[in-house]
Amino acid sequence: MYGLACFSKFPIENAHEVHFESSFNGAVVYTIDIEGQKYTVANVHLESNSIRAEDKKLYSDFLQNSDSVKLEEVTTNIRSRLGAAYRQRVGQVQKVKNYIATQKTKGTIVCGDFNDTPISYAYSQMKKGLEDAYASTGFGPGITYHEDFFLFRIDYILHSKDIKAYRTKVDKVTYSDHYPLRSHLQLNIQAP
Predict the structure, then answer these.
(1) 90 in Cβ contact with 22 (< 8 Å)
(2) What are phi and psi of 43, to 5 degrees?
(3) Residue 159, Cβ neighbours under 10 Å: how many?
(4) Which domains does the chain have, with CATH numbers?
(5) Longest dimension (CA), the chain
(6) 3-state secondary structure of 130
């Protein structure tokens, strides 16, 4: 599992790795103590679509000079990769949701690279019982993945209903093939 981290000015009481049957993807679920109240924060990196450079070039070439032969090649190639990844992500989402369900905390935040769009089954399952910070307070299409004519919203910040999001935005910095997503989250902290 690579690239998952949580930086907090509040004490992190627990970090639990949720392992996927993948060498590069996974999730870490943290319990954070914020002024005496516990919150669950899950950082996830779900299965990639495994679209290779050759696949992207084939797609790009097709967009530049389309014909029916290339269309069949492009759709067959990409469809097989996407189908396998879709199925894997559904199982990964279930593992994360099952672990989160065992946590007895005041609120939940799930964020990270879902590698799937807002109309996907994996997204809808992860979002159950949660709010999408960008959908409720962002503006525009919210594209977070940008490479070789592939432009998608696949990175998310989800939160429980007792947490309020505001000023959610995509930062258009080009450090990677993903733009970072950020949001201000207001917690309902009550005096102990």
Answers:
(1) no
(2) -110, 120
(3) 24
(4) 12-186 (3.60.10.10)
(5) 67
(6) strand
Between 18-27, 84-93, 99-108, 134-143, the lowest mean confidence (pLDDT) is in: 18-27
Distance linking the first and last C-alpha atoms of the chain: 37
In DSSP terms, 152 is beta-bridged to 145
Q: Global pTM?
A: 0.88
SS (H, E, C) 144-183: CEEECCEEECCEEEEEECCCEEEEEEECCCCCCCECCEEE
Any long-range contacts for 174-180 (C-beta under 8 Å, 24+ apart)?
Answer: 177/145, 177/146, 177/147, 178/113, 178/144, 178/145, 178/146, 178/154, 179/143, 179/144, 179/145, 179/146, 179/155, 180/144, 180/155
CA–CA separation, 98 vs 59, rounded Å? 37
| Residue closest to 21 by CA, chosen among 46, 4, 51, 41 | 46
How does the average pLDDT of the chain come out, rounded? 89
44 vs 127: CA distance, rounded Å: 13
